[in-house]
Amino acid sequence: MIKKKKKKIWIFLIGLVVISPFCVFNRSSEFILNYPMYIYYWLFLIIFIISLLLTIRNSISEFKANKTKVDKLIFIVLRIVMLQVITVVLVGTILLPFNFYNIKYSKKKPSSTIRCEIIGSSRSFGRRESIYYKYHGATYTIHGSTEIMSEIYINRRFGNYLFVAKIKKGLLDTYVINDWDIIRK
User: pTM, whole model, 2 decimals?
Assistant: First the structure.
C-alpha cells in the first residue's frame, strides 16, 4: 500500500516537472508580439514524427492485441492524443530558452509605446481576466487581474478602452512587452 502511494507521488512530481516548463513557455510567449509560430509548427512536426517513429514498434504489437474494431479505434485515438501532448510539452520546453534570450536581447533596444484597440475579454475559472487586442492586424491576448479588466469584462464596452504597452524590438521581427496598462479613451 505504501509503495503505491510513493509511486503515485513520484508520477505526480515527474508530471509536474515535465509540464512546468511548458506553462512557463506559454506565459513568456504571451509577452512577445509577432511570435514566429513557424518555428513552433516545424518543431512540433519534427518532434511528432520522431516520437511516432520511436513508438511505432510497440504500438503495432499493442494494436494487434486489441480484438474489436472499437478497441483498435480507441487505441489509435489515445495514442495520437498521447503523442500530441508529449510533443506540445517538448516543443514548449525546447523553445523556452529562445523566449528568455529574446527577452534579454530586447532589453538593449530602445523602447516605444503602442496603443491598441481592445476587441474582447474573457474570464477563466480562476477568475483571471483576459483582454484581446489588435496589433498590426493580428489578435493577441494578455492575462491579468486588474480592476479595469474586471470592469471591461462585466460592462462589455471594449470601445471605451485602449491597451497601451511599452515594447522593445526582439529577435526575428518580434516585440517584447515590458510594461502595459489599460486606459480609458
Answer: 0.73
